[in-house]
Amino acid sequence: MVLLAAGVVLLVIGINATNSFGSDVSRFFTGSPTDKAVWLLIAGAVALGIGSLGLFRGSKSA
Predict the structure, then answer these.
(1) Is the CB of residue 40 less than 8 Å from the CB of residue 17?
(2) pLDDT value of residue 48
(3) Which of 3, 33, 61, 62 is the right S-S partner for 51, CB 3.0 to 4.6 Å?
(4) Helices (H), 1-62
(5) In this structure, are residues 48 and 8 in contact, taking their beta carbons and an 8 Å threshold?
(6) Which is nearest to 40 in space by CA: 20, 60, 61?
(7) Model confidence at 58, in pLDDT bands (50, 70, 90)?
(8) Which of 3, 2, 31, 32 is nearest to 17 (CA)?
(9) Of 33, 12, 38, 8, nearest to 22 (Cα)?
(10) Is residue 10 within 8 Å of 44, Cβ to Cβ?
(11) Residue 17 contacts residue 34 (beta carbons within 8 Å)
(12) Average pLDDT in the 13-37 region?
């Protein structure tokens, strides 16, 4: 559950970072957003994937 929530938070922060002024300047010169924004999106997607996998997998207690 914690990874799921952290993944959502990181994705939201990453999306906001891609819409920032610094990211717009970087996109103008390089064609891509800042590295920070990209890493936040990647980390958010990975955390969301692992969190959802753990949530759907459930516990194996007998």
Answers:
(1) yes
(2) 93
(3) 3
(4) 2-18, 21-30, 35-57
(5) yes
(6) 20
(7) confident
(8) 32
(9) 33
(10) yes
(11) yes
(12) 86
